């Protein structure tokens, strides 16, 4: 009986420890685009899924995926579920969906808002001419610990600085409105590196901070946008924390409740038997291993 009790305590303790740490990622999956000859979704989708499973993402935000791609992800990733609305309306167009391990987390609340002056309806970002832009959020509960937190995932405009600056202001405002002072994480493709005004708005807000600066040796060997190998720029890092060349467009931000232990850009490749290294997406995913601190 004594050995049984000790074993049960050790098991319970291991569950609690595992619940205190997690791997969070952001991944622009690249939409299923017929122009991507040589990197078609039908070929690369299995390798996207393998990457996610091997690197053991607990939850992650996505960008650009179309409804059919999300269906493929559900099939290829049976351990995960997701939530996300389409940026053009109900299940229409690209998504900024959030995936999570269904055995580890449950969704308590969920929602979406558009990165625009009219955030409650599908709409373009201020002066941006291209597309509707959306931010998806969920409130997750860790089943083992009972702790809950919010995750937000977004994809910013790629043309207009004003739209991106206003998007950051809106994200901060909505985060306070939805999450209050609760633990929260914001991930996404912000179409700009940490030196841009819209990224500084978030990092210097006193609400969220860029996890890149949490770690002594961030693993960032390239721009996070690879353009299928056309743009793989080596980064020149000073003091491990200042980037002087190359753009990290994909970011993970934490509130004070979390601390990043590692920060890495995953440059995994695949081959279709032709001895040519291909990337699963035109963006590299960014993953952070993190722990609770409050």
Strand order of the largest sheet: 3-4-2-1-14-13
As a whole number of angstroms, the C-alpha radius of gyration is 19 Å
Q: Any low-confidence stretches, pLDDT <50, length ≥5? A: 4-18, 235-245
CATH-defined fold name: Deoxyribonuclease I, Chain A
CATH homologous superfamily label = Endonuclease/exonuclease/phosphatase
| Euclidean distance between termini CA atoms | 35 Å
Helix and strand content put the structural class at alpha+beta
Mean pLDDT: 90
Q: Which word captures the global form?
A: globular
Oligomer: single chain
| Main beta sheet strand tally, sense and closure | 6 strands, mixed
Topology as a string of helices (H) and strands (E):
HEHEHEEEEEHEHEEEEEE
CATH class: Alpha Beta
Relative strand content: 25-35%
Number of domains: 1
**Helix coverage percent of residues?**
10-25%
How many runs of DSSP E, i.e. beta strands?
Answer: 14
Number of helices: 5
**Proper CATH architecture:** 4-Layer Sandwich
Account of the protein in words:
It is a single chain. The protein is of the alpha+beta class and 294 residues long. It has one domain: Endonuclease/exonuclease/phosphatase (Deoxyribonuclease I, Chain A, 4-Layer Sandwich). The protein has helices at residues 2-20, 41-54, 67-76, 161-179, 197-203; strands spanning 21-28, 59-63, 80-83, 98-101, 105-114, 134-142, 148-155, 184-189, 209-210, 237-238, 242-243, 250-254, 258-265, 286-292. A 6-stranded mixed beta sheet has the order 3-4-2-1-14-13. A 6-stranded mixed beta sheet has the order 5-6-7-8-12-9, with helices on one face. Strands 10-11 form a two-stranded antiparallel sheet. Helix 2 packs across helix 3. The longest helix is centred in the first third of the chain and has 19 residues, at 2-20. It starts with a helix and ends with a strand.
